Amino acid sequence: MPTHAITRRVLSAAIALLASSAALAADYPEKTITLVVPFSAGGPTDVVARILGQAMAKSLKQSIIVENALGAGGTLAAGRIARATPDGYTLLLHHNGMATSTTLYRKLAFNPMTDFEYIGQVADVPMVLMARKDLAANTLPELIAMIKSKKDAMTLGHAGLGAVSHQCGMLFLSAIGVPLTTVPYKGTAPALSDMLGGQIDLLCDQTTQTTSYIRTNRVKVYGATTKTRIPSLPALPTLAEQGMAGFEMYVWHGMYAPKGTPPAVVARIGTALREALNDPNVKARFAELGAEPVSDAKATPEGLRTHLKAEIDKWGPIYKKNGAFAD
């Protein structure tokens, strides 16, 4: 067959594909969209998802339901989305765990860099280091001294191997050079509940879940994990300004669709995402929780892809150095 004939066929196929994608986008969405969250209801990521889902539903003129699908540090939900029908009706909201799973899990049923369509980054959430209200240490130096003298008697809770609370705790213990007994939970909500009840001593958690407890003095808080102070908690110093130079840890969120979702549908969801992040009500609700919507440039497929790759490169060596692996 002549080369020009093959070229015409390829071009015709490409045009047909674009036309089909455009047609899907024109009709999308025609039914309820499911936004899957790999963590427990009421937890930090769930809170972000529900605020975001309500705003995106207005833009898309269609209902968005949030579904909590727990298990294996978020990898079960991510694997499910990777295998879902690529029509834009099943989406995933995941946090840092999408990046750390590549090192943490020896057998992973998906590849974060190849098995998804990226919608965009969503929001950055600060974390805080805190303790049960009756812990004797009142300042960060006092806490570090207590940990060093009573390390065998103190406990640090987290939401499971690979969770952001686990990452944060690991960075803190690595920075002070002291190991502690860690207690894994199925989410930070039960970990926080146990800390409030005095069953564990320490927890590193997101402001979306802890701000109200900090403001009402129900926990003892030692510092923020960000470079600068959190606007919603201006009196709280950062760990870095208290002598832990370079300490930085925050939770970032990304939205994903199954690989093969039509480009026009991905673009339509992306537009709704950016509109939601610029909604004054969303900004206000996020601000109350200490969360910050990302810029329009980050709330794009390329913005998420670039950040995900950078996070994989950052956390891989840290996990390997500490020998942190799941089965």
TrEMBL record:
Domain of life: Bacteria
Keywords in alphabetical order: Receptor, Signal
Signal peptide location: 1-25
UniProt keyword Secreted, yes or no: no
Pfam entry (one): TctC
Keyword Signal included in the entry's annotation: yes
Family under the similarity heading: Belongs to the UPF0065 (bug) family.
Protein name (record): Tripartite-type tricarboxylate transporter receptor subunit TctC
